[in-house]
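Exam revision sheet. Question 4 asks you to relate a sequence to its structure. Input first:
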Amino acid sequence: MAVVTPTSASQLMSSFVRFDAEFFKPEFIDNYQKVSSIAGIISLGNLTRRITQGSNPKFTQSGLPCVNGKNVYFGTMTEGEPNFVSHDEFERLSGYTLQRNDLVITLKHATKVGRIWIVEDDEPRIFSRNVGLIRLKDDSPVKPSVLLLYLWTKQGQLLIDRCATGGTTGQITLPMSELRQLPVPPIEKDEQEIINNLFWKSRDCIKTSVDAITQAQQLLESELGLDKLRFDKPVGYTARFSVVGLSASVNANRIDAQCFSPEAVFYEDWLLKHANCDRLGLLLASTAKGRQQAEAETGTTDYCSIKHITGREIVGASKAYPSAGTPTARKDDLLLAITGATIGKIGIVNRYDNLIYSGDMLRLRANGSVSPHYLLLTLDNHLGQVQFNRWITGSTNGHLSPRDVGKVLVPRLAPETEEQIAALVAESLEKRQESEQLLEQAKSRVEQLIEEAVQA
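Answer key, structure tokens:
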């Protein structure tokens, strides 16, 4: 049934100068009117010293980083790979250099604009045209972290979504002129201090998480001597016919170039000669390939796919109705991507007691002779990833056979060292989850304050 939204001439002649139906959707109008009714409201443009779209630089293969839309998410500004510009280009566009406490927001995307985060350091970087800058005045009554969380709330995101327009290339665009008009409600100073403290405690947890996983990786690599190991990629390579059928005492039954890539052969041979190793298959109690499920908001069971692997664990699972005989994963199981562009991506089930998973993932359940957290780190390490890549088959849509997964070599260390590494990995995951909880607590507090102000 069609939805009819009546509007007045005064609304049509607003500063946005918009006449399209999308702009006047009931949920957008209702949210805008509620936020705008709060006493002391101020437009975003009046809070900022600078609010602008990024530059259009000439990119290079290396150099100084240029933040693009793929780098900006809710919770980080480091996802994906940045573009790079030369030092000369960086100097030419020095007016687009980011500073600590700047907010960066995505302005163009196929489905969603308005992803936003805060610049946490003064590392030299500029930003590209599909990213916007929000830099507050020195005397702004709103702290950068509080503004970030406000724009991240359901109210802030509805305001941003209302401003979005269709682009000429099929992209959604967030115009800077409309972003400047966004209403920002006042928040008491003492409340801002509480919210700001929660936010930076969250970031401290992330730093602890990163430090812990870095220590674990360094310990693993130093114990194995990988920190001193160097592989020089040759221009070309050959494999003798006598070793095509056998690869380090494992039946390869392959004659393709990928299976005998120099890097894969180099690391496998080095492990067999210099480390105590077990084949992955000998360390697992069971494996099980998942099944594709139709996601449903009213589903009875948590369901994940490769997109839910974030930071080496499963995060943000959706819901689905499991079909009969669907395999499940439990706490401390590992889920490995075995199909598509991200083969080898791996995460541990840490937040769910019972989880079903998609058909492009393989469940790995440790048999008790090795810690799943130690196994997670070794398989996520370059040492494990290069082995997974070796056994991929298919050209247009790669696949990793469960049988070949078991061939991967897992280095074994002294029990106390493996326990130390596993403890660091577990600490990293725990601190990451604590950070998310603090961030959600801060955002929820801002949402609550807005609702209270609307009711006042």
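Marking note for examiners. The mean pLDDT is 88.
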